[in-house]
Amino acid sequence: MRYLVSGKEMKLLDQNTSAHFHVPELVLMEQAAMGFVTELLSLKENPGRTLIICGSGNNGADGLAIARLLRERGIDTEVVLAGETASHKTTESYETQKEIITAYGMTVHKSVPEQESYDLIIDALFGTGLTRAVSGALAQILAQMNGMPGWKVAVDIASGIDADNGSVPGSAFAADDTITFSYGKAGQYLWPGNEYSGNIHIVPIGITDESWLSKKPRIAAFERSDLGMLPERNAHSNKGTYGKLLLIAGSVNMAGAACMAAKAAYRSGCGLVKVFTAEENRQILQSTVPEAILATYSHKLDEQMVVDELKWADAVVLGPGIGMGAAAEKIVKLVLKNCAVPLLLDADALNIIARQTDILMRPHTDIVVTPHLGEMARLTGDTVALIQTRLLECAKEFAQNYDVICVLKDFHTVTAIPYGHSYLNLSGNHGMATAGSGDVLAGIIGSFLSQRVKSEHAAALGVYLHGLAGDLKSEHLGTRSLMASDIIEGLSLVLGEWEEEEHG
């Protein structure tokens, strides 16, 4: 697991490193510049003629230090001092770095050269502390930078992105690569900031986890090593050892959702999956997922049957493909009233709940909700556009308001814990935006819940594994051709590789 930070958190880390561990700011700056240059030259050994556009703060000071180090390595490097205006005060470190490059006689411009050609444009205009829109003369400079040909690289964060939430309220630098310091910044992975960040490279500069002191960051991201949270498989065990999942899914002409979720649950290690579905789906499920137990209901729903099935399960997934009819609504209300094991609510279950969200307040068990942006809009009454620009905040607010774990699905999915930190998923690709992908995710998380993985870990780890499986299959199939069934196959490959790495 690794942490992602906000602008304020990064500032606190800087301050703690200097105040508590007595590392001077200029030492950190030198290490940042050295880390940037090392990473830059590993990406391209000879980047060619370089122009660095520097603001008047510490990000600009980083840029000046980088310019000097590139010059030392024989790179033809020029600097633009773009931040020196009456309304922008310079920092002490900036003035120090400016004195150094002046003493070395480096080429310095007061504005971006219009008739010159450069192979590399480095953005050191604004850092992680920016929370306002870039406008006026500085917006024009960003437009010039974006319009120049050549490789574009940002120092720490592309100028114009809010480091906390990824918003771009004004102009922003469109980087091909961002070389960021110590920790990834949340706004670099959230939309639309991720579209301006390019490839993100994290380099150490001497700020480590010790600098958190007693205060941990609010956002974490799972890594491959976190698959170790999955339960061990013991030699002396049986199918009951690995959980019983009740999957309430599918309706007339919607058997695929139940099939996908059931297969994904088994591929994720679940011992026993029972599918509760419409009678019309019997033949399809028995031929497609013969490993699953089947329980069906007719047009006249037996309410006691639903309650009895809930007693059988170690975890329940409710919603994929169940439709919006009277039977589906009755099932949702029965489950919310009677379920006493971890419960995942997805798809149509969420659309039904959106009619009366207060029914989410009734249960006394762990609940995971997995809405996509449209479903979240129906649950909250907010627009999709607003939710997408406030992904972290919306997920957190919903989690706290209803005391649920909220998995808000987007390109980088957020898993919000009611009163804990949030997880931002960094696996997956746009090829996974395909029918059935959400059903697969529901099956994975449900499988982990049934195996008694802690609910918040089951949710966030399920999202991460889902993305890994999609990434692995897209390497062979590409993103255009990816289907939900391919993601299920990817689960087997990822988990197989993991077991081999762990046990040899």
Task: Characterize the structure shown.
With 504 residues, the protein is of the alpha/beta class. Helices cover 41% and strands 16% of the residues. The protein has a twelve-stranded mixed β-sheet, with helices on both faces. α7 (255-267) packs across α15 and α9 (303-312) crosses α10. The longest helix is centred in the last third of the chain and has 23 residues, at 455-477. The protein starts with a strand and ends with a helix. The relative contact order is 0.09. The mean pLDDT is 95.
* General form: elongated
Strand residue content:
15-25%
Helix content: 40-55%
**Distance from first to last alpha carbon:** 23 Å
Q: How many helix segments?
A: 17
Strand order of the largest sheet: 8-1-10-19-18-17-16-15-14-11-12-13
